[in-house]
Amino acid sequence: MNHDVIISCAVTGDDTKVTKSPHCAVTPVEIAATAIAAAQAGAAIVHIHVREPETGAFSMETRHYREVVKRIRESKVDVIVNLTCGMGGYIVVGDHGLKDTPGPGSDFVSQDDTGNLWFVKQMIKEGLLSAPSLIQLCMGIPYGVPADVGHLLAMVNSLPENCNWGTFAISRMQMPWVAQAVLLGGNVRVGLEDNLYLSKGVYASNAQLVEKARTIIEAMGARVLTPAQAREKLQLR
Amino acid sequence: MNHDVIISCAVTGDDTKVTKSPHCAVTPVEIAATAIAAAQAGAAIVHIHVREPETGAFSMETRHYREVVKRIRESKVDVIVNLTCGMGGYIVVGDHGLKDTPGPGSDFVSQDDTGNLWFVKQMIKEGLLSAPSLIQLCMGIPYGVPADVGHLLAMVNSLPENCNWGTFAISRMQMPWVAQAVLLGGNVRVGLEDNLYLSKGVYASNAQLVEKARTIIEAMGARVLTPAQAREKLQLR
Amino acid sequence: MNHDVIISCAVTGDDTKVTKSPHCAVTPVEIAATAIAAAQAGAAIVHIHVREPETGAFSMETRHYREVVKRIRESKVDVIVNLTCGMGGYIVVGDHGLKDTPGPGSDFVSQDDTGNLWFVKQMIKEGLLSAPSLIQLCMGIPYGVPADVGHLLAMVNSLPENCNWGTFAISRMQMPWVAQAVLLGGNVRVGLEDNLYLSKGVYASNAQLVEKARTIIEAMGARVLTPAQAREKLQLR
Amino acid sequence: MNHDVIISCAVTGDDTKVTKSPHCAVTPVEIAATAIAAAQAGAAIVHIHVREPETGAFSMETRHYREVVKRIRESKVDVIVNLTCGMGGYIVVGDHGLKDTPGPGSDFVSQDDTGNLWFVKQMIKEGLLSAPSLIQLCMGIPYGVPADVGHLLAMVNSLPENCNWGTFAISRMQMPWVAQAVLLGGNVRVGLEDNLYLSKGVYASNAQLVEKARTIIEAMGARVLTPAQAREKLQLR
Question: Is the model's pTM score more than 0.90?
Fold first, then answer.
């Protein structure tokens, strides 16, 4: 069991969800604001995608990322900013925004299925990747690995030695999977990228999802790490 | 995952714990009171041991059981009363106390290790036991089955078809195990028989333990069954 | 445990292996011959890829498939012929070759990772696929699912109800995986498509690999099904 | 997977089996003879119980053990002799028989259920036992742990670090379990104490059971260790 849990919050996702929930952030201003709120609720890491401000469509534009990071840093709220690069590559943003990015510890790797875990281990073996800061096992995404305890257990038993890892599941399994991650020694992820609802028919904000995860973690007797404690655990910088 | 969770509260245990916590119930009056409080907090089942009122030593005296049951029924608080018979045999108390006991559904079987699960399945096969109301898997008790997810998964996969089951763990693993039980489709148990603490150094009352279990269950998106709903799920009476 | 085991033999694979082993079949004549030998050794199913006869390069040419099937049928050796269509679609060849193909039971689906298993279950759910004859779990292929018992167990527990299934692993794990498949209730696959060696440095023929699989299966107390028995178990035709 | 497999042969068991099979050894002469034959067939360890010579009833008499050991040593056939002490304590016999017994490495512990595994780990923790030579997981004995892959996997994942281990199952599961042990990295045990039959209705000798285990092990690509190699692997003497 993991007693020192890092909460990641994936604050926004693909465009189809934009019109559904009033909490979905679209513009860099909104994305930064929801990330700050998530951090204040207890998220040590915010996982950032950006969108086209007018349409909400998925975007990879550096200027949107730049604005999000700038606003987060200006708020003085401490949080580890994890920018996605769409698929595969992830970078950690240093305290000075994109100026010192990728920051040390840019080893986050997204896990889509057991094949990617093989790939990560191969990269470590070939010296292309030092022991990753955080391996994330994504479960429950249709046609990926099902959010099933047996599968997670098998994957956890296959992880590289001494790595930090997390796992998350989508929709209804998001919160139960917070508990499952902690029970097996991992870290957690919540956020509107993976689930829109607080309960049946009730939309959630990112802060509310983080609070609910915190409730579960603390009721189980574990503690939620601050960004500073998370940096130390993940050996960032 | 189990979305309709039955909370059992094991309100008091063996005598060595009596002198430790101020919340430990000793006399039938105290045991009944703590059981009632647990029921009001959300426990659908209370699991009852009794003690010698003067010494707190473990007792099997019918008159103590009788008094506990009488007081619970007089309170008009609805709860399923599950009396232990020390080892192996369990009986369910009907609404009229020991007069109509064992009540229908007296099929609770305590699981100490995988051997007992074999025994239960054998008894069902030989027609000595109809499909049990609730098979309870006890984990984390020294020299029994460790509170380990792999072991629980293996046991859950070996359960008889279509049975209700629950699992609990002791001490620090009590609350995490509430989450694990729900995740794998089972019911839960908390209470001072298995753990004395709310958090490090802070003693718990049974009601507080039930409340914490409820918090975890509801945060995971499941609901806690009332005694009436539990009777229906377990097909009692 | 599976006591009625179907051996599939995947007789040839991709072109890179052609120059390595003297047993690799390239021309339709050679492919048919090695398939017949595998059937005589105990394979109930032969899994057929074809090659360009001159170069040994991978081919999808119908005429090569046609010739292979014709020669197998002319030999009068009974075996279930399973032609691959490269990726995803598989067809069963009836007794009259490609004339009555796809034969009934053309439900073989290749499993590359847990995502495909999800896809199969979805297709069954949507009525696009009746309960498959044989779900094949491929393990140990780099970047797919590792040939790990925990992973296999999780996948086996996720299979559709009442399906037949098999699993195989490549290289050194081919023969151990024959035993693992049988232990968990599945069928087996061997053949030069997945492994070239009988032992360290010693090339194998398909017949030798089938014999070795048979040795393991029978030593474990199970029996190897004939093609006729396999058709019945898989409910073909 | 274990590529260097130690075969233990448990040559005789409790008295009820005596009248069933013509191969059951009763007198010290017979027990020694069957142990020697098992060793010649490939068993690196022979696991010895003794019986009352007239009745075949179970015995703990030192003089019977002494005679068995003397005869084995006089044959000059090398094998590790593992005498049982009924329950719990096991001793290794040195080359000079009971004169230098318990020999170094007398750390064999029999595993009846997960509780004993807990006990072993506790003894190691308290310094009462140095890292055991061989932890044996017994499965499939009624009311013990079922011979189920999930259970074995959970127990294997709970073993102390860097220990050697083996597992065996009884009756029909004896030979399949040889394969399962090897697949998960363990050593194997066969013999008439656990199973009387070579196949349905056909009684087995210990040598035949050892040969069959050897067949499975070698077909899987592993090798069977000699007693000398086994002593080195187990760090005896």
Answer: no
